[in-house]
């Protein structure tokens, strides 16, 4: 199984400041033939299901604000929120879909400082 | 806009079978693939398995011996059965459309395993 490890486990950022969440996979999720990274990011607010933010490591899902961006390749990935808003308080998960069983990171809890 | 809704018993006895159904509305279940994911209270996400509209399936090896996912295209529904449940199977169970990544998701349903 591919193990997904996120850092940090929790993060407190001031409103308007940048938030950065890291995700590392135990093996590469870059598919050679199409040069795509099989990596997604989700946001989960309390009492709600996860919501897809980013897929293919850097493609923003329709309707997701452009302050959210994804980057990285191979085994190391980053989710960046460029200017934190109050509504961004949530737990964020990365997920690999390179191979089954699909696996998620343990989650990063983002709070307002 | 496609929406998903899970339904089924919220309480299951140990050693019995958990059965849930996901109803897809706002679009056809055909030509897409579908998945189940679960989340124990206060914990992270675990992929259970997926099913193609053709009926082909792929399950998480950690659950494979106990899981069955099926699809009924005439009802726009797909289902999950998990046998021989224990307290460790207590979780919120989500259904979702699967494209490798998962979107959209249902609201989830809490299933508690207890006598």
What's the structural blueprint in terms of helices and strands?
The complex is a heterodimer of chains A (113) and B (115).
Chain A: E1 4-7, E2 10-13, E3 19-25, E4 30-31, E5 36-37, E6 39-44, E7 51-55, E8 59-60, E9 68-73, E10 76-81, E11 90-96, E12 103-104, E13 108-112
Parallel strand pairs in A: 2-13
Antiparallel strand pairs in A: 1-3, 3-10, 4-5, 6-7, 6-11, 7-8, 9-10, 11-12, 11-13
Chain B: E1 3-7, E2 11-12, E3 18-25, E4 33-39, E5 46-52, E6 57-59, E7 67-72, E8 77-82, E9 91-99, E10 101-105, E11 109-113
Parallel strand pairs in B: 2-11
Antiparallel strand pairs in B: 1-3, 3-8, 4-5, 4-9, 5-6, 7-8, 9-10, 9-11
Entry summary:
Helix content of chain A is 0%, strand content 51%.
Mind explaining what this structure looks like?
The complex is a heterodimer of chains A (113) and B (115). Chain A has 113 residues and is mainly β. Helices cover 0% and strands 51% of the residues of chain A. The termini of chain A are far apart. By secondary structure, chain B is an all-beta fold. In chain B, a hairpin with a 1-residue loop joins β9 and β10 (101-105). Chain B is globular. The mean pLDDT of chain B is 97. The interface between A and B is medium-sized, with 21 and 20 residues.
Using only C-alpha atoms, the radius of gyration of chain B works out to 13 Å
Shape of chain A: globular
| Fraction of residues in β-strands of chain A | over 45%
The beta-strand count of chain B equals 11
Terminal Cα span of chain B: 39 Å
- Structural category of chain A is mainly beta
Major protein interface: A-B, 21 and 20 residues
Task: Supply the number of helical segments of chain A.
Answer: 0
Count every beta strand of chain A, where a strand is a DSSP E run of 2 or more residues. 13
For the biggest sheet of chain B, the summary is: 7 strands, mixed
Largest sheet of chain A: 7 strands, mixed
Alpha plus pi helix count of chain B: 0
- Rounded to the nearest angstrom, the radius of gyration of chain A is 13 Å
What integer is the average pLDDT of chain B? Answer: 97
Given helix and strand content, the structural type of chain B is mainly beta
């Amino acid at each position: 199984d591919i193990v997904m490890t996120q850092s940090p486990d929790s993060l407190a950022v001031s409103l308007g400041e940048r938030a950065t969440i890291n995700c590392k996979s135990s093996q590469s999720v870059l598919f050679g033939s199409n040069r795509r990274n099989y990596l997604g990011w989700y946001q989960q607010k309390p009492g709600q299901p996860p919501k897809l933010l980013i897929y293919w490591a850097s493609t923003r899902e329709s309707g997701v604000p452009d302050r959210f961006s994804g980057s990285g390749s191979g085994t190391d990935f980053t989710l960046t929120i460029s200017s934190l808003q109050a509504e961004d308080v949530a737990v964020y998960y990365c997920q690999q879909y390179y191979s089954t069983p699909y696996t998620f990171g343990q989650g990063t809890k983002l709070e307002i400082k | 806009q496609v929406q998903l809704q899970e339904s089924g018993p919220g309480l299951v006895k140990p050693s019995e079978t958990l059965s849930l159904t996901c109803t897809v509305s706002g679009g056809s279940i055909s030509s897409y693939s579908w998945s189940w994911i679960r989340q124990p209270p206060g914990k992270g996400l675990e992929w259970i398995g997926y099913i193609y509209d053709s009926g082909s399936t792929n399950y998480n090896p950690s659950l494979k011996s106990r899981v069955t996912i099926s699809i009924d295209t005439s009802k726009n529904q797909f289902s999950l059965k998990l046998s021989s449940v224990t307290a460790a199977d207590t979780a919120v169970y989500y259904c979702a459309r699967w494209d490798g990544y998962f979107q959209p998701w249902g609201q989830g349903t809490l299933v508690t395993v207890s006598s």
